[in-house]
C-alpha cells in the first residue's frame, strides 16, 4: 500500500478497495460453510457474486490507471504494478473457482430436495423420532403420508388427462387441416382440367374461324370475278370472249324464214 501511495494515490485507493473486497469474500465463504439452509446459501452466494463483479470492475480500473501511467514510470515500477495486477487477478480467480464449486454443490442439494419432497432429512432424525412416537402417532403419520401420496397421484392423473386432451385436440386439428388440404388439391386438379378443356375449345374455335375465313375469301373472289365480267360486258358488249357466257351473251337477232314458192 505504501509503495503504491508513492506511485499514485488513485492506485493506492483502488488497491485498498480491492483488499477490502477480498477480506469480505474470505469471510463470506467461511460463513457459507456454516449455513445449512439451501435458500440462505443461495442468497449468500448471490451476495458474494456481486462482490466479485465489483472486484473485477476495480481491477480493470486499476489496469487502466497503470497503462495511463506507463510513460511516466520507470521499468521497475511498471513491472511492480503489473505483478500487483496479476496477483489481484489470480486471487479473484481463486474465489470464482470456489464460488463455482459451492454453486455446483448447491444445485446438487436442490435436486436432492426436489426428489426427496416431504421426506427431507427423514433418514436418521425421523428414525429417532419414530422410536419416541406412540402407536397412534405412528398411525396418524402414516395416514398423513398416504394422503399426501394420494394427492400427488391425483395431481399426476390430472396432468396426464390434460396432456391427453391436448393431444386429442391437436390430432383433430391436424385431421381437419389434412382434409382441407385434400379438398384444395382436388379443386386445383379440377381447375387444371377445366383450363385444359378450355384451351382445346379455343383451338377448335380458332381452326373453325380460319376455315370460315377461307370460305369467305373464296366466295369474295367468285363474286368479284362475276362483277368484273358484268362490268366488262356492259362496257364492251361485242367482246367475243364473254359472248357465250349464259346470261351475258347479247340477244340473238330475229331470223326470218325465207319462203320459196315452188
From TrEMBL:
Residues 38-72 form a coiled coil. Its main location: membrane. The keyword Transit peptide does not apply. It is found in: Membrane. SUPFAM superfamilies: SNARE fusion complex. The keyword Membrane applies. Keywords: Coiled coil, Membrane, Protein transport, Transmembrane, Transmembrane helix, Transport. It comes from the Eukaryota. GO terms for cellular component: cell plate; endoplasmic reticulum membrane; ER to Golgi transport vesicle membrane; Golgi apparatus; late endosome membrane; SNARE complex. This is t-SNARE coiled-coil homology domain-containing protein. It is a single-pass type IV membrane protein. Belongs to the novel plant SNARE family. It comes from Gossypium raimondii (Peruvian cotton). Signal peptide: none annotated. Residues 143-205 form the T-SNARE coiled-coil homology domain. The chain crosses the membrane at residues 215-235. GO terms for biological process: protein transport; vesicle fusion. InterPro entries: NPSN/SNAP25-like_N_SNARE, Sec20_C, T_SNARE_dom. PANTHER family: NOVEL PLANT SNARE 11 (PTHR21230:SF27), VESICLE TRANSPORT V-SNARE PROTEIN VTI1-RELATED (PTHR21230). GO terms for molecular function: SNAP receptor activity; SNARE binding.
Amino acid at each position: 500500500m505504501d509503495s503504491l501511495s508513492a506511485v499514485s494515490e488513485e492506485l493506492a485507493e483502488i488497491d485498498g478497495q480491492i483488499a477490502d473486497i477480498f477480506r469480505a469474500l474470505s469471510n463470506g465463504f467461511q460463513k457459507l460453510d456454516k449455513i445449512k439452509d439451501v435458500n440462505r446459501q443461495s442468497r449468500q452466494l448471490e451476495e458474494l457474486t456481486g462482490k466479485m463483479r465489483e472486484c473485477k470492475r476495480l481491477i480493470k480500473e486499476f489496469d487502466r490507471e497503470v497503462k495511463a501511467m506507463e510513460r511516466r514510470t520507470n521499468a521497475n515500477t511498471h513491472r511492480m504494478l503489473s505483478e500487483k495486477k496479476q496477483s489481484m487477478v489470480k486471487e479473484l480467480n481463486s474465489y470464482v473457482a470456489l464460488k463455482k464449486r459451492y454453486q455446483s454443490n448447491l444445485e446438487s442439494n436442490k435436486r436432492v430436495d426436489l426428489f426427496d419432497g416431504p421426506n427431507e432429512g427423514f433418514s436418521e432424525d425421523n428414525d429417532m423420532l419414530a422410536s419416541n412416537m406412540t402407536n397412534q402417532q405412528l398411525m396418524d403419520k402414516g395416514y398423513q403420508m398416504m394422503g399426501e401420496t394420494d394427492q400427488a397421484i391425483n395431481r399426476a392423473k390430472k396432468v396426464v388427462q390434460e396432456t391427453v386432451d391436448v393431444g386429442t385436440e391437436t390430432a383433430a386439428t391436424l385431421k381437419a387441416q389434412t382434409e382441407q388440404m385434400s379438398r384444395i388439391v382436388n379443386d386445383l386438379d379440377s381447375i387444371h382440367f377445366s383450363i385444359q378443356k378450355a384451351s382445346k375449345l379455343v383451338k377448335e374455335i380458332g381452326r373453325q374461324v380460319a376455315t370460315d375465313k377461307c370460305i369467305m375469301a373464296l366466295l369474295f373472289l367468285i363474286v368479284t370475278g362475276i362483277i368484273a365480267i358484268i362490268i366488262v360486258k356492259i362496257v364492251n358488249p361485242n367482246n367475243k370472249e364473254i359472248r357465250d357466257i349464259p346470261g351475258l351473251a347479247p340477244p340473238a337477232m330475229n331470223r326470218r324464214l325465207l319462203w320459196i314458192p315452188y
